[in-house]
Design brief:
This protein is mainly alpha-helical. Helices cover 81% and strands 0% of the residues. The chain is built from 13 helices and no strands. Helix 2 crosses helix 3 and helix 11 runs antiparallel to helix 13.
């Protein structure tokens, strides 16, 4: 047996193939769901499975409930909007450029949070009701977008400080920030966005200031 054939049949190769197939299947389901939603429908998991030409049994393995399907489809549809907003901001690695990208990311993410507020509130509700059962990838999109904005800072900060920066920025944007700033603090939509941006800039500046202090020691 050739080395090529051996590689193809190795457990690692088989697992990679399964991962790719699962990704393709989930992608087909989400694409079908977004198309049906765009047509003004609120599709069931079964309807999406039929539209994607995927077995209903398989579809329910990926999306056990209509709520999970609808939320994942809606959030994945936001990806190109968020990425375009970040890409349109300055692309340099200096502090001003990073802040400009974070400003753009914060504004767009908060506006989208307001636009999709009922859905996001329902997701929060479901997560609280089923503690430990939430899909971390659903919230992971937020961290992907944050990292797109601040990635040039990683070499300046080091791994530990960079990870802390990402975690702190995760508190400055998104539905949780909206809930605190509007429901508890009573801010308007415009004020909520402004405070979100201000917090994000403050976190970035503090991270850089601490790095400079550490280098002087």
């Amino acid at each position: 047996m050739s080395n090529r054939a051996t590689r193809r049949s190795s457990p690692a190769a088989v697992e990679r193939g399964r991962v790719r197939q699962k990704k393709r299947t989930k992608g087909l389901l989400l694409t079908a769901a977004r198309s049906l939603i765009a047509a003004g429908r609120r599709p069931t998991v079964a309807e999406v499975a039929d539209a994607a030409e995927v077995s209903r049994r398989t579809a329910y393995r990926y999306f056990p409930t209509q709520m999970k399907l609808m939320s994942d489809a809606a959030l994945e549809g936001l990806r190109p909007v968020m990425e375009a907003a970040i890409a349109a901001a300055p692309s340099g690695g200096n502090a001003d450029d990073v802040e400009a990208r974070v400003d753009a990311m914060s504004e767009k993410m908060m506006r989208l949070a307001f636009e999709h507020e009922p859905l996001l509130r329902t997701m929060i509700h479901e997560t609280v009701l089923h503690q430990g059962g939430g899909d971390a990838r659903r919230w992971g999109r937020r961290m992907e977008w944050i990292e797109m904005a601040v990635a040039p800072m990683r070499p300046q900060l080091g791994a530990t400080a960079y990870k802390r920066l990402l975690s702190a920025l995760g508190l400055c944007v998104g539905i949780e920030a909206l809930l605190v700033l509007r429901d508890i603090c009573g801010l308007s939509q415009a004020q909520t966005i402004q405070v979100s941006q201000w917090m994000a800039r403050a976190v970035i500046r503090q991270s850089l200031a601490e790095r400079k202090t550490a280098r002087r020691r």
